[in-house]
Amino acid sequence: MVGRPPKRRRKARLDGANLNMTAPDLGNEWVGRWINDQKNRPYKLNTLDDWEFVDGREITDSETGKVLVGEQTKTNADGGSRVRMRVGVDKDGPIYAYLMKKRRELCEADEKEKFAELDKIDRQIVEGISPIEKQHGSVKVSRG
Q1: pLDDT at 11 over 90
Q2: 143 three-state secondary structure
């Protein structure tokens, strides 16, 4: 057979350097994160918090029609698709991370709340008050 040699696949690096787990740009009003599907975390974040699943149509390459990262999974609910990436295996089978998004202003508000709590704990430590609830007894350190 005459012609060019067969196309070779790109050699995969097994040290993890070739894994692409960055969330694609979803615009200024959204923050994207990969959420591992362990202990039903994506569902909980979707129903109990303000996180939404990224639909595959939101991050599709206009030329190839494929999603930019991960793979699309069809959902029965609305005919859309969720974006996921296989990230590991456990005793129950494959572990997938789902691409989820949350409005930027809600993420920033959550972050302020989290840091306010951490600042409170830091102040208590500096003042010598243990942040551990229901503490019993006391400890004194002296140089002797």
Answers
A1: no
A2: coil
Which position has the higher pLDDT, 45 or 126? 45
Q: DSSP label at 60?
A: B
Q: Using an 8 Å Cβ cutoff, are 87 and 60 in contact?
A: no
- Phi and psi, residue 19, nearest 5°: -80, 135
70-94 burial, b at 16+ Cβ within 10 Å, e below that, comes to bebeeeeeeebbbbbbebeeeeeee
Contacts (Cβ under 8 Å, ≥6 apart) of 84: 37, 70, 71, 73, 96, 97, 98, 99
> Between 89 and 24, where is the model more confident?
89
Kindly report, residue by residue over 22-65, the tens digit of the pLDDT: 777 888 899 999 999 999 999 999 999 999 998 888 887 777 77
Exposed, middle or buried by CB within 10 Å (0-12, 13-18, 19+), for 107?
Answer: middle
Domain assignments of the chain as residue spans, ordered by start:
30-103
Q: Cα 104 from chain centroid?
A: 15
Q: Higher confidence at residue 40 or residue 70?
A: 40
